[in-house]
């Protein structure tokens, strides 16, 4: 979501923030998870904000797991050794199982 343009300097922080808001607005009509996928956008960007662009997709998975963990025990299975740290800092109720 424009993260590489932000870090590369071709997109200003204000333009990036506006793009996130516009994306959230356009996703309002898309439902699933408990509160719809649009509800994950801002949270995913907050999670990604502390990491590089290569972690953008992680933010979405962690945001969804965090939302689900509010209503049921949630386990996130991953091969990615960086996910446990991200989850610990951003979604401490989520249980991570690191696969080998």
| Total DSSP helices | 5
- N/C terminus separation: 30 Å
* Shape label: flat
How much helix, percentage-wise, in residues? 40-55%
Report the uncertain regions: none
If strands are numbered along the chain, what order do they take across the biggest sheet?
Answer: 1-2
Question: What keyword list fits this structure?
Answer:
single chain; 100 residues; mainly alpha; two-stranded parallel ribbon; 5 helices; flat
What would you say about this model in short?
The chain is mainly α. The protein is 53% helix and 8% strand.
Topology summary:
Elements (H helix, E strand, L loop, with lengths): L2 H6 L4 H14 L11 H11 L7 H14 L5 E4 L4 H8 L4 E4 L2
Parallel strand pairs: 1-2
Helix pairs in contact: 2-3, 3-4
């Amino acid at each position: 979501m424009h993260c590489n343009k932000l870090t590369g300097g071709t997109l200003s922080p204000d333009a990036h923030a506006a793009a996130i808001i516009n994306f959230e607005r356009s996703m309002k009509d898309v439902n699933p998870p408990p509160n719809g996928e649009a509800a994950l956008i801002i949270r995913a960007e907050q999670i990604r904000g502390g990491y590089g662009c290569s972690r953008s997709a992680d933010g979405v998975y962690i945001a969804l797991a965090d939302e689900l963990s509010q209503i049921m025990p949630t386990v996130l299975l991953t091969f990615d050794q960086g996910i446990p740290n991200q989850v610990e800092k951003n979604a401490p109720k989520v249980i991570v199982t690191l696969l080998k």
